[in-house]
Amino acid sequence: MIKKLEDQLREKVWKAIEIIEKEKFFIHSEPINIQISSEKNYSLPMVSTLVVLNALVPRGTMILYGGYGGGKTTLVKLLGRMLAGLSIRDLEASIIRAHPQLTEEKMIGRLDVGKLLKEGMENIVWRNFIQSFWKIIDEINRLSPSAQDVIFSILSEGIAKYFDGIYETKSFVLYATINPRDVGTYPLGLPFLDRFGIAVPISSPSFDEISDLAETQDEKLHEYDDIRVPAILSVEELKIIWNLASRVPLTEEARLFISALAREFSLCARTKKEIGAFLQLAETICRGCHFNTENAICNKVFAPISVRATKDIARYSRALSWLLGLDHVPLGIVVSLSPYIIWHRISLSPKFIETFYGNAFYATKHLVDTALRSFIRRLPLYRGFMDLENGVGEITILNVLRESSPSDLIIAMDLYPNAEVISKPEYQSLVRELKAAFSKKNLDKVKSIMKKAKESLPANVYGRFMRVFERFLKQNSEIYEITFEKWHNKLSIIKQILTNSKEVLDRTISQARLEKISLDMGEIVIHTTGMLPTAPVYIEIYGLGEAEKVKQKIAEIFGKK
């Protein structure tokens, strides 16, 4: 039943993409190519796929870059009808049409003058844009800096503020369009742009695409309405997809590449790019540095990507993997999506961008491809480092890292220094003891080792040791997958087992959420994906001692995994 629901939801999303292409809601044939392996690859319509993808992550935020009159705003408005089941009239009423004179009052809300005069109450009437699940800002670069601040609060906190009133808008999908050629625009700062998860550069239609446009129905005569554009998904179904997509795990290669990409775009051997000095003094800082080579990435990225950007790479990669029906997030999806997720929120060397004729997206894509080649070459060293961290590696990896460090910035500043620390006999002895204790499920021994580690290891090394401990702990896990209806019916029995967690358990049937219950040496994670009777609920139990007993009792209720 659960698999059937997930397949139905996935089919509905593909149906929306099919309708966009078939009905020519937006004509743009440029593909996004994704290579999963030498035998398996995908070629998908770039604009249609990515605008839909933005709706498959919670609080997805997208910028569509392109000239005026291309149909960007119309496309995302029709998408709100198909993917959220909202009426086109309501969607239109909630759109912000940006212009320099747009005030906070016109965007956010207004005071109820009647109540203010009669009762002296500052009651706020919130605007449609704030209350709408599907938010659209047309030509966002025409907003004044003060108006941008209003949007910034929504993007960063999910909160709108007006006078003393606060409106929480925690669940939404947002699209903004930009016409870079428009007059009367304002610059958008990097912190503001960093709040947008993904950005799609849209070029003009090709010759044959323009011919197709001439044959489409005249939308001024035959307007889009709720009959012509079907409602395919509801908001509730879309939120279930958010939760399902969030559960798709990253492969080891995908996870390591995201980390490598973040470091490639951030590291400097001489200064920290995060403090901003590189923006003004890049050439001076790079002069004479032996890492300053033609193929280096560090000398081309002036403002690095944020932690938020790396999280977005993972979120959007999970969503696309879910849409493609994959069990894991492969490296190819991360590589294909990364340029769209980071190009708009970094600052690149002007000279470097000139080599791509001013196209920042292509420049970023080139750097991602460069980072991929370095990553593949470095991959055996990552694995050797991880083996060393887990207590199963060879100390000889230190020699390899030392020899490679003069020509590789990540090895020089990350892998080699950390490998030196974890290669110390004290760390290696403790981590091997810990591994042996876990393999024998010796709870007392694990506790003794953890106490010794806390007392003897430096804080930075103990933090790394704790991460290894958590990995070992989660290796001994069970995941139960049931419907929300079954979870709701069995909850009273669960409460008899977890007598101290009744309040937490009650929250699992109030809304889609993830709750955690700590055990003596482990944890229970309950993930409710939605309130529909067939919506999946996942119960993950991992750990030793008490966790083992809870697993047995849960298995008796729901059956074996």
Q: If you had to describe this structure to a student in words, what would you say it looks like?
A:
The chain has 561 residues and is an alpha/beta fold. The chain has three domains: 2-245, P-loop containing nucleotide triphosphate hydrolases (Rossmann fold), CATH 3.40.50.300; 247-423, no CATH class; 477-558. The protein is built from 25 helices and 17 strands. A five-stranded parallel sheet has the order 4-7-10-3-11. A four-stranded antiparallel sheet has the order 14-17-16-15. Strand 8 (159-162) and strand 9 form a beta hairpin. The mean pLDDT is 91.
Round the Cα radius of gyration to an integer and report it: 26 Å
Q: CATH class of the largest domain, please?
A: Alpha Beta
Total number of β-strand segments?
A: 17
What is the terminal-to-terminal distance? 15 Å
- Main sheet: strand order: 4-7-10-3-11
Q: What is the number of independent domains?
A: 3
